[in-house]
Amino acid sequence: METKKLNILILESNKKDAETALYELNRAGLENDYLIVDNLKDFKLKLFDFLPHVIISDYHLPDCTALDAYEILGDITIPFIIVSGVVGEEKAVEALKSGVTDYVSKDHITRLPLVIERALNEMKVNRQRKSVEHELIQSKERLELALEGTNLGVWDLDFMSNTIVYNKRSLSILGLPEEDAILEFAYFQGYNSAQRDLLQKEMQNHIDGKTPIFDQEFCINKHEDGSEKWVLVRGKVIRRAPDGTALRASGTLLDVTEKKVNEEKLKKNQAILENAEAVAHIGSFEWLPKSSRFIYSDGFAEIFGLEKKKVHRNIIEIYKQRIHKQDQPYLNEIIFGKKEFYDIEHRIIMPDEEVRILRNSGNIKHDENGEIESIMGIVQDITEQREISKSIFNAQHEERSRIARDIHDGIGQMLVATKFKISSLDVPEDDFAIAQKEQIEELLATTLDEVRRVSRNMSNRHLEEFGLQKTMEYLVEQIENMGDFHVTSYIDIPEDYDMELSSAIYRIAQEATNNIIKYAKASNVNIKVESTNQNIILEVTDDGVGFDTENNWNGIKNMKERTSLQNGHFEISSTEGEGTTIKSWFPLNT
C-alpha cells in the first residue's frame, strides 16, 4: 500500500456509522480524504469527480442497495466493501459472487482497515502480474505466459506476546499444518538464517518508521527436488503505544513462485531478443496514443540513437523529428489510413545528419470509433542492405548497358554489313530471284530494327539523349500502337534530376505498361507523371481484369525494388474485375 492519502467514498445514510468507520481507519493509521453520500445519484456523480481509491457502502439505503451502487462501477476496478449491520448470509454470499470485494459486519468494524489493506495489496499484486505478462509479450513475439490468480494469505502479529496468527491460506503458502495457526513469531518461518536476518532487518526498519510498509520476498527451500518456493510478505504496523512502540501489525502473504520463474524467463528471453535484434539491426516498439506511451526495445533505441529506456512519454516527438521530412506525408498517410497492417520503408535523420533507411512494419489496432488504439511493430535498419542492393543494381545496369552496346555495335553492325552485301549482289534477271533478294533484304531490315529496339530498351541511351519527358512520351506512343486500348496521359516533369531517378521512373512505367499489354485486357489506360515541391509521382492505372496483389510476382518485386533504391514509396492496389493502380512516390533533391 502506498503512503499517499486514500480517497474513500462512503455510501451511508447513517452519519454515525460512517464516522465510526472513519474512526477505525484513522486509528489504524490509514490517512484519508473522504466523501459521504446517502443516495445513488450523488454516488454516481462523486464517483467520477472524487476518483476514490476505496468505496465503503452500507447494504440497505433509502433508494437502493449496495449491489445497485456496485453495478454502476461497470469495468472500473475499485475495491468495493460492504459494511453493514444485519445482512443475511445468503445476501452476503450473493454480493461476493457479484464481484463485491469484501463484506464487513458493523459489529466487527475493527476489521475494516485490514480488509481495505488486503484489497489494495491484491490490486497492486494484480497490476504487477499484468506488468510482467506485458513485458513477456514484448520481449518475445507471441510469447504467452499467463500468471495464475493471486490467492492472498492473511496474518496478524501481536508484538506484546510475540505471537502471529495465520489464516488457512497463509499456512498453505508457508507449508505449515493447520494446528500451527497461532505460533511464536519467527519472521514468517524463513528457511535459513540469512533470510530470517533480512526479514528481521526490514521489519525493524518499518517499525522504526524508515519505510512506510513492510514488503519483502523470501525463498522457501521446501521441496525434496531442491526447487524453490517464493513468498511475498506485506504488512504494516496498525497499532502503536503512545510512546510509538509497535503493538500490532497485519498483512498478507502471497505465493509468487510463478512470478519469479517468469521473471527469470523474461530475463533470458530479453537477452535472446536483444542479441537477435543486435545481429539483425532490428528494434521493436508499441505506441499507445491515448496514453501517450511509447514502449521500445534496446534495438529500437540503438537504431534511433535514444536512451535505452523501456517506456518514454516524449519519445513520439523525438521519433517524429527523426523521420525525413519528405517521407513524413507518406508515413502519415499509411499510419492514419485506417489500415490494420503496414510494411513500408522510409528514412530517418540522426542528430549528426547521418541518413538511415528503415523498414517499418506493424499491426494497427483501432477502437470502435476508428481511432488508433495501439501500434505494435518492428523497425529494421536496412541502410547497409540498401547500399549493397544499389551496388548490385548498378552493376546489373552496367552489364545491361554493355550487352546493349555489344548488340548495337557488334550484331547490329554485322547485320548492316550483311544487308549491304546482299544489296550489292547481282542476281539473275528473273522475277523469283529478285523477289527472294527483296524478301531477305526486308527481313534483315526488320531484324536490324528489332536489334536496335532491344539495344535501346536495355540501355538508357534514349533517356541520355532526350530526357525523361520525351522518353515517357515515346513510351506512351509505343503502347498506343501495341495495345488494344485507349491511352490517356499527363506528363509534366522538370529535367533537373539525375539519370538514376529518370531510369527508375521510366523502367517502372515500362514494366507496368508491359504487364497491362500482356495480362490486363483493359479498355482504358492512364499514365501520369507529375512533380510537387518535394516529390515526383508516377501513377499507372487501368480498368482491366485486376489480380490478387498478394502474388508477389517478379514484375512487382522489380518495381518495388527500383522505387526503394531511390528512397521512394511504392503502392499497388487492384480489385479483380475493376482494374489496377500502380503508384510510386520519389523524393526530389535527396
Descriptive keywords:
elongated; Beta-Lactamase; 22 strands; 16 helices; PAS_fold_3; Sig_transdc_resp-reg_receiver; Rossmann fold; 590 residues; 45% helix; transferase; 4 domains; six-stranded antiparallel beta sheet; PAS domain-containing protein; single chain; alpha+beta; phosphoprotein
Distance between the termini: 56 Å
Q: Total helix count?
A: 16
Helix content: 40-55%
Major beta sheet, strand line-up: 8-7-6-11-10-9
The domain tally reads 4
The stretches of 5 or more residues where confidence is low (pLDDT under 50) are 139-150
CATH homologous superfamily (4th level) name of the largest domain? Histidine kinase-like ATPase, C-terminal domain
Beta-strand residue percentage = 25-35%
The rough form would be described as elongated
Pfam family, one: PAS_3
Keywords: Kinase, Phosphoprotein, Transferase, Two-component regulatory system
Organism: Reichenbachiella ulvae
Domain Response regulatory: 7-121
Question: What does this protein structure show overall?
Answer:
The protein has 590 residues and is α+β, with helices and mostly antiparallel strands. The protein has helices spanning 15-27, 40-50, 66-73, 89-97, 112-139, 168-174, 193-207, 257-280, 298-304, 315-322, 328-335, 383-423, 431-458, 461-482, 499-520, 554-565, and strands at 6-11, 32-37, 54-57, 80-84, 102-105, 153-158, 163-166, 182-184, 214-220, 229-240, 246-255, 282-288, 293-296, 311-312, 341-349, 355-366, 372-381, 486-492, 524-531, 535-542, 569-575, 579-587. The strands form four sheets. The protein has a six-stranded antiparallel beta sheet, sandwiched between helices. A six-stranded antiparallel beta sheet has the order 14-13-12-17-16-15, sandwiched between helices. Helix 5 (112-139) packs parallel to helix 8 and helix 12 runs antiparallel to helix 13 (431-458). The model is unreliable at 139-150 (pLDDT under 50). This is PAS domain-containing protein. Residues 139-210 form the PAS domain.
